[in-house]
Amino acid sequence: MDTSIHQNGTGMPASHRYSVMVGDKEFIFETGKLAEQAGGAVSLRVGDTLVFATATMSSAAREGIDFFPLSVDYEERLYAAGRIPGSFMRREGRPSEAAILISRVTDRPLRPLFPKDLRNEVQVIITPLSHDQENHADILSINAASAALMISDIPWGGPIGAVRVGLIDGEFVLNPTISQMEDSALDLRMAGTDEAVIMVEAGANEVDEETMVRALSFGHEHLKTLVAIQRQMAAEIGKPKRAYEPAKVDAALVSQVQERVAGEVARIVANLQDRAERNAALDELRERVLAEYESTLLESEEVAFSLRDVREALDETYRREVRRRILEDGIRPDGRDYTTIRPLSAEVGVVPRVHGSGLFKRGQTQVLSICTLGTPRDSQPLDGLYPEDTKRFMHHYNFPPYSTGETWFLRGPKRREIGHGALAETALRPMIPDEDVFPYTIRVVSEVMSSNGSTSMASVCGSTLALMDAGVPILRPVAGIAMGLIKEGERYAVLTDIQGMEDHLGDMDFKVAGTERGITALQMDIKIAGVSDDIMRQALAQARDARLQILKVMTDVLPAPREEMSPYAPRIETLQINTEKIGTIIGPGGKTIRSIQDKTNTKIDISEDGTVFIASTDGPSADRARDMILALVEEPELGRIYTGRVTRVEAYGAFVELLPGHDGLVPISQLSDHHIERTEDEVHVGDEIMVMITDIDPAGKIRLSRQAVLEGWTLEEARAADPRIGSGGGSRGGGRGERGGRGGRGGGHRSGDRSERRGGGGGYRGPRD
């Protein structure tokens, strides 16, 4: 570790610099120069990626709330990558999906370590100032935010350290770069304290459970270095922690309410396993007890408590009884043991006309997923800091209010919806076929129909069914399950397939998705200080068992992707052209490609490498568009027979257009299988005739023979029969008439592109406009 103080004569405040090596990368923390009025402000640099984090707390608690008002915002700035935003206003607007996901991954490990009774507003803002396109900003965001909180006056139980772990060629790599991640089978982001892991977010290419546990241990060991440097910063330059007014809890009232309702709550939890019946009984008890205490408040002015305190005491009593019953009796609220999954069901093809649909149900959680296939132009453009500029596979998750029997304003996707959608997308992405195998843009939308626990993992299952129903050749089906944890001291219970209540009252929401071969995504949200490796290993083992059960239910419905796509889905055909011909297909201002699309009712996209994508709802239209494109880019081939159109007739022969932009001369001696006196005796302008290319000279002039076709000659026989070629002069020795006959329509350059379509007896017949 290295520590230094930088003074300068410019009037700027002195800065404190701390650096530490984490693996083979230097993490440089600096504070003091920027944002002196913030509660805490730290910049963190790795390579040329530099992020700046601030943490500030309000002076007083927010009145009338029963939660901690923390906000964590990652404010993406495109100047960090030397780019100007592409919007009309040319400035950043609403946060991108990537920015929201980094905000969430930063928030999750910070939140559990704040005091439970803190009601002051705390705001953490992270701004990337520079991005070198190699070192990830998300890991820097977590560490910089933690450091800012540590040196601030905000009460907080950190620090935490965060690292990324990759798996390249079977070896763990600490904090791999963006380019290294292209070869990694694992993208594990994790944060924790000295003692335990707090947050995990991972995408993987079917990594097994034991490898994942080893990766977590590897990462945890290395993040301790970042924890240590932050402790040093807090000890040397940290501000004294500010006192705050804790949320008041009337312990005597809580004890009194708990004593009053404990028996009834226990009977409700023990006897009513149906969610609706249990909730109705609890609501009736709550209303009755609140009415009793409301009467007490009205009768006596000396009583100092609020009905909110009574309500919280009731909720705490219920929470304690549910947790006690799980730990001591081994029975969950719905009567299940620790590892039993709720009833499962699956269907496909439930929505007409869409390209693919899947419906998945687990207990009261139900998700309908719809798959839509599009052309490459339908891919999502990305205007962010990372090198990727488009995305061809998208998963979007919607959580409407009716899914929980509630109402609220619909104002676009919330952070939670974006996060859940991204998690399912991460789980499915490794199984999506490459573009050269399946050249479609793929969008899956998961609509939550009913929610009672782990809708994000249900959306993984529903999306897999929708993809297979659409005929997307995914490598293997993917399923997901959510694990929970109830922990009191050294006692704990790991729960398989948690429902909403267990998520709310428990200590962990641990989501695991994968195939029969291994894990593809993992996310852990935790409410306690951390979990041990043993708990993590047990949770992963139970999740695998559950995943295999769910996959069995799904594959019983649809064992493999459908062989045939929906008749309403586009058919995409690809062909490769010389990149120099891209402009020919597009035409001036896009005129040519628009004409082809209009005439064939297709969509055509061309990539920079010369790959042409032709999308159509029927095969003949795609074939016609393909023929028209090939006709534009095809180069004349020596010895090949073409059907061409006579464009000019001269005394010495006829000029024939073989392909767009390519014509050649049929000398009068090669125009028929018998002697003719005049060219007009055999052909006229507009006639279509079959000719063989017998010579292409270095200047691109093409010499043709109709006689060779009529006689059935080989190329060698045709060349021998033409005195100009047979004498060795070729068309380069053509006389004045031939030179004049070229008329400026030479054969053009030879790019090497050639169609694979060969005419039988009739040769290749290009489309006619």
Plain-language structure description:
- The protein is α+β, with helices and mostly antiparallel strands and 769 residues long.
- 31% of the residues lie in helices and 27% in strands.
- It has 17 helices and 30 strands.
- The strands form 6 sheets. Strands 9-8-10-11-22-21-19-20 form an 8-stranded antiparallel β-sheet, sandwiched between helices. Strands 1-2-3-4-5-7-6 form a 7-stranded mixed β-sheet.
- Helix 1 crosses helix 2 (137-151) and helix 5 (275-299) runs antiparallel to helix 6 (307-329).
- The longest helix is centred in the N-terminal third of the chain and has 29 residues, at 209-237.
- The protein is elongated.
- 42% of the residues are buried.
- Mean pLDDT is 89; it is low at 728-769.
Which terms would index this structure?
single chain, 769 residues, alpha+beta, 8-stranded antiparallel sheet, 7-stranded mixed sheet, 17 helices, 30 strands
Q: Which structural class do you get from the secondary structure elements?
A: alpha+beta
Mind describing the biggest β-sheet? 8 strands, antiparallel
Instruction: Enumerate the strands of the largest sheet in spatial order, edge to edge or round the barrel.
Output: 9-8-10-11-22-21-19-20
What is the first-to-last residue Cα distance?
74 Å
State the shape.
elongated
Arithmetic mean pLDDT: 89
Strand content of the residues, in percent? 25-35%
In terms of per-residue confidence, which ranges show pLDDT below 50 for 5 or more consecutive residues? Answer: 728-769
DSSP strand count:
30
Radius of gyration: 36 Å
How many helices? The count is 17
Helix content: 25-40%
